[in-house]
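The methods section describes the discrete structure representation at length, but only in general terms. What matters is that the chain and its backbone geometry are given together, residue for residue. Nothing conveys this as quickly as seeing an actual entry. For illustration, here is how one protein appears when written out as sequence plus structure tokens:
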Amino acid sequence: MMTTRRLNWVVLVPLVLAGCLISAGSLGQTLTVEGKGTVQIAPEFARMSASVSHTADTAAAAQVAADRVMTRILAGVDALPVAKDSIDAGQTRIQTRYRWNPRAEMQEFQGYEATRVLAFKLTSLDSLGEALELLSEQGATTVDAPQYGSDQSLYARNRALAIAYARALADAEVLARAAGLTLGHPENISAGPQRSPVFRAINRDAPVAMSAEMAPRYEPGQLSVSASVSVIFTATP
């Protein structure tokens, strides 16, 4: 069944003037301005990750215990709306564990620790609470915070770049008039580094207690996609 998503776009335009620089050279004058633009989009998916660790007297026993828990978790993940090719249960990592004994002034062997890391892409945020609950209840040792994403991130960055340039151009026109100059064409345009979308939570309150019958419904908030540009315009008296 095909699902149609509706994206609500919210454009944030800085209210402060961009940085500027007017310089005069032997061949003419230039005016340098900077602009910033931000676009907010709704997250469409979440990248989940968790780890399973178990310590035992032997490496084999530790691995068997960790694999048993991971098998239970994977069975539950298969029932979730996930991108099947994104499921990565990793290889088992085994390391020895020691603890310092201050009385004996020596390291004491504690056992072998087996660790496996699981990662997958949850394609429906409506199931985020169920996924977190599954990882916790089935024995994950650690559960990382979801990393939200959207297939519209590239388009959002393009919109943010356009907003940033428009902001820079508007400031350049104001500054040129103030300096008694006629603004010319852009001589050089450079974009700032591309950064990952920043998650902005709508509700920062602590989550309410989960009922035993139903997993909580999470409202993750928005992704903020920003871009910046630096533009050098020609200017004439």
User: Anything to note?
Assistant: DSSP finds three helices and eleven strands in the chain. Helices lie at 59-77, 128-137, 153-178. Residues 45-149 form a domain with the Alpha-Beta Plaits fold (CATH 3.30.70.2970). The two ends are 63 Å apart (CA to CA).
